[in-house]
Specification:
The chain is α/β, with parallel strands linked by helices and about 230 residues long. It contains eight helices and twelve strands. The longest helix has 17 residues.
Length: about 230
């Protein structure tokens, strides 16, 4: 599960990043509201944790703009303010939950687990496209037409899960790189090319009518060959 953390206080941010990574979350950290909004708009995050008081744009405004742009990522708002009006403002701006500083790490992790379950409840563990079924819990890809199946690597699974969930859209190399490797990772775009090649071979192996089509100058699209 990939989490966006937007927090401008460096010591707090470092502590939260270390905690979340210890809990096996993938974490990307930004330090201002404008960067948080840009990251949210990429659509690659499962949960966003936004501090309210940040430079360039506060967390309330980042959440409001993200929601108005159609972003559905669950948002947990962090703030030192505990007044009811501030909580109402945060929830009205589009936040799903609200946690007041200082907080216990156990409570933060519990709230993240709850948001993660809420996010997962909107998705089947079995995803379908064309003649393909993707069993995310088993990392198994099956072609219903041929009955053939194949186990996927972790990167192949994440690529297909992302593309199945965004069917009909062209995924840019940047979106895929961020989703699979993260903002802070030094992975280069050629890594996307390499793992796309591996994933395409899995589609051919199971005999599927679905292909990953390169759209010149834009990125990749998952589509049926006859369409």
């Amino acid at each position: 599960m990939r989490i966006l953390l937007a927090e401008d206080e460096k010591r707090m941010a470092a502590a939260l990043v270390a905690l979340l990574k210890q809990e096996k979350y993938d974490v990307d950290h930004v330090e201002d509201g404008a960067s948080a909004l840009t990251a949210l708009e990429s659509g690659v995050y499962d949960i966003a944790v936004l501090d309210v008081m940040m430079p360039e744009m506060n967390g309330f405004e980042a959440a409001r703009r993200a929601r108005s742009g159609g972003v559905k990522t669950p948002i947990l708002m962090l703030t030192a303010k505990s007044q009811l009006e501030d909580k109402v403002t945060g929830l009205d701006s589009g936040a799903d939950d609200y946690l007041t500083k200082p907080f216990q790490t156990k409570e933060l992790l519990a709230r993240l687990r709850a948001l993660g379950r809420r996010s997962a409840s909107f998705q089947d563990t079995n995803l379908h496209f064309g003649d393909l079924t993707l069993e995310t819990s088993k990392a198994m890809l099956t072609c219903e037409q041929t009955g053939q199946n194949v186990r996927l690597s972790e990167k192949e699974l994440r690529i297909l899960e992302y593309m199945f969930s965004n069917r009909g859209q062209i995924m840019t190399r940047e979106q895929l790189a961020v989703k699979i490797w993260g903002f802070d990772n030094e992975a280069e775009y050629n890594n996307v090319e390499v793992y796309m090649s591996f994933t395409r071979k899995k589609l051919v192996f199971v005999g599927s009518n679905v292909e990953i089509k390169a759209v010149r100058g834009l990125g990749y699209e998952l589509r049926e060959k006859d369409v």
